[in-house]
Amino acid sequence: MPGVGGVLIRQLMSYCGSASEVFRSSAARLIKIPGIGEVTARAILHPDVLRETEQVQQRCEKLGVQQLFYTDKRYPARLKTLYDAPPMLYWQGAADLNAARTIGIVGTRQATEYGRRITEELIQNLRPYSPLIISGLAYGIDIMAHRASLANGLPTIGVMASGVDIIYPHLHTKTAQEMLLLGGLLTENRPGVKPDARLFPARNRIIAGLSDGVIIVEAAAKGGALITAEYANNYHREVFAVPGHLNQTFSQGCNKLIRENKAQIYTKPDDIIEALNWDQAAGKTAPAEKPLLTLEFTEEESQVLALFRQQADWHIDELSWRSQIPIGKLSSLLLNLEFKGIVRSLPGKKFQMN
Length: 354
Fold this sequence. Notes:
40% of the residues are buried. It is built from 18 helices and twelve strands. The protein is an alpha/beta fold and 354 residues long.
């Protein structure tokens, strides 16, 4: 809905408890929710909203597109913890969105032979670790990364600034179709949405959020690749930049990131493998969940404690949104955990695990 973005969706879900309850609520109740005024409340309850939603759903079913709301178990876990996570994703493909290892590879649309060679060599050397390769399906480094991934039998996801049914640029349609067999296409835009300048930066945040690390192969002093690097730094992801010739326009961005300590210098694939601990994790299964999280607590308590394992401290509003437990019930739950000595309260309605 126009004017109802991720922040308001979080508020609505937190206060009402579910999407269904939002639409069952009265306008008077909705107005009491912070950020929801009379105009927005009336817009939410207008009958055209659900009619339009039904049309979108029918179109997705016809196209074979999955709708992943952020409460869906299939929603990417790496995105769920972000403050600006897209509420809804549209997904088409076969890849595991929660793959054990992911790497984002982005760069300029005006890629050089040097950039192509670095991209292909990097992906070839990462092949033993079977990572999910993420990029933006654009000209230059992006499409090179997708094609090199396919050539090496690695799953690759194209994050789009349009609906999943509108391939942009159209020239990459064949590659996009090939990606569906092993990787896939992902977007926060409903089917039929055409690419627009304002949607590309938003697309870049998804690339950064899905990635354990992001490598900028070639980039000018300004551009989408640097925006992706900025998001990755904000999300505490590892960022790498390939150094380039001082007089080369499309190395200026990478050299700048390195100079300003916003990216590690990339010299060889081992730089990424070691920084992400892929060498240590190779061949090892994930450790089992601690018994206290699954045996000694209720299902909802275990759900909250699992979130504390992902992040040191949480504001109660954010915790309510992530766990989908209404604030009233969550407050009681946290108090109980505090009595047990598991969590402690902090100033500003924050909580931390002991």
